[in-house]
Amino acid sequence: MNIDKTKPVLVTGATGYVAGRLVEKLLQEGITVHAAVRNPDSKEKTKYLDQIAAKSAGEIKYFKADLLQDGTYDEAAKGCELIFHTASPFTLAITDAQKDLVDPALKGTRNVLNAATNSGSVKRVVVTSSCAAIIGDAKDTLSVPNNLMTEENWNTTSSLVHQPYSYSKTLAEKEAWKMMKEQDQWDVVTINPSFVVGPGINPHGTSETFEIMKMMGNGDMKMGAPDFRIGAVDVRDLAIAHYKAGFTPEAKGRNIISAENTSFLGLAEMLKPNYPNHPLPSKKLPKFLVWLAGPSQGMPRKMVAKNIGYPWKVDNSKGVKELGVEYRPMKETINDFFEHLIEEGVIDKK
Q1: 121-152 tens-digit pLDDT
Q2: Which helix (H) or strand (E) holds 12?
Q3: What count of other Cβ atoms lies within 10 Å of the Cβ of residue 95?
Q4: Domain limits at 317?
Q5: DSSP string of 184-208?
Q6: CA–CA separation, 132 vs 70, rounded Å?
Q7: Is residue 81 part of a domain?
Q8: Predicted local distance difference test score (pLDDT) of residue 43
Q9: How many domains does the chain have?
Q10: Contact, 61 vs 44, CB < 8 A?
Q11: Pairing between β-strand 195-197 and β-strand 253-257 as defined by DSSP bridges
Q12: pTM score
């Protein structure tokens, strides 16, 4: 599956955290990017991409698109051989899981893949899925060999009422595979990242990642951090993984993209030597305390019960071997990120 780099490439959710670094890479490679965004007239949203485009060999063109609107991506997909579908809501602040998470994820995927078909030219769609479509709760890892999840595993434990974000990612990815089988014009490659960290092109991003870093840096966790084990990956490495998934002819299937298996406390420990004056967490919060206080912090008790203190491990070897993904050390990533957020005034300087 060779993709012609002289043809435009569509990126959905182009002003997002992951997409920003991906668009940067595409522009640096001299590619014309069709950037699909909700509000192309918002200079506040597009200015970071415009600044990169101004000093890159590539060119950016904006298209108005809405995940929930049929046919919304058709214009942007015209003439493209490759689509990167990164648009999907990542937030824990929801009032209606179906409306806020599942509908945009599922309908958005359908709309993008229908646009791929309608274009007549698209050959490959790289879908940004998630490790959340592989693991529902950390406790699920107890049922697999060595507690290590691979691309063969699917999240079977999330639902509309329990871990709805993970549920939305699972449904959307399954829909992508189903729709791929129903036609023979384009193939799908999915990228399944763990927790994404690192400096984005927009320091004031709205991803949940920024909220967690702010809580860590501004003292909300100084009494301790919940013992959530996570995988983590640098947003810059993740962008390269997307790029390789698009332009590596042999790329296929699902690809776990995760640099290290760690925890929130593990990330804080990596920051301490460089930021001794910041009120970073230095111990685990007892599980019963998190269980008691969790609901008021957006962490339902069932989520606390099935995740805190359990191993969370994924096997990243497929992405390394088949896509040639290289990971920078998480210690470097998290320190770059923290410094970036301090410079931009998102985290207080101490």
Answers
A1: 999 999 999 999 999 999 999 999 999 999 99
A2: strand 9-12
A3: 6
A4: 9-343
A5: SS-EEEEEEE-EEES--S-TT--SH
A6: 26
A7: yes
A8: 78
A9: 1
A10: no
A11: unpaired
A12: 0.94
